[in-house]
Automatic annotation (TrEMBL):
Domain of life: Bacteria
Protein name: Uncharacterized protein
Length: 139
């Protein structure tokens, strides 16, 4: 999610894209007479107000809200049947079931257990290949 980091005289806050652009538009239009100097670039704006306030707005990506845990992964024998793996990469339904190591996406870096959220998998290109362990789902 895109947001703007707003710095006014050294104080940093986070504002929505809409709020940031509203301030920029106001400074350019009806509030122009209160502005001494203004710079507007790609994802970056700075406004120097005549009252001495200096505002800088920079577009940033807000950290994604992780409401859903990344824990689904397959095993060596049934890589497309996914379990919820705990921190030690063992299935919640049966601790003898272990996650298999897979190559990194893009092929670079070490192999590992790259767990994903259920919605990530269900919304992915290969969603139809996967099934979810019903026992893990209810645990
Ligand atoms: Zn399971």
């Amino acid at each position: 999610m895109k947001v703007y980091q707003r710095t006014e005289n050294g104080t940093v806050t986070e504002v929505s894209v809409r709020e940031a652009l509203a301030e920029v538009n106001t400074a350019m239009m009806e509030g122009k007479r209160y502005v001494r100097e203004m710079f507007s670039g790609r994802g970056q704006h700075s406004i120097e107000y005549k009252d001495g306030r200096s505002v800088r707005l920079v577009e940033v990506y807000a950290p994604r809200e992780e409401s859903e845990p990344r824990e689904w992964h397959g095993t060596h024998s049934t890589f497309h049947h996914l379990h919820r793996m705990d921190e030690t990469n063992r299935a919640r339904c049966n601790r003898r079931i272990r996650a298999n190591l897979v190559p990194p996406s893009g092929g670079r870096g070490p192999w590992g257990v790259f767990k994903r959220t259920r919605s990530e998998i269900e919304n992915g290109e290969s969603a139809r290949l996967y099934t979810f362990c019903p026992k893990c789902a209810t645990k």
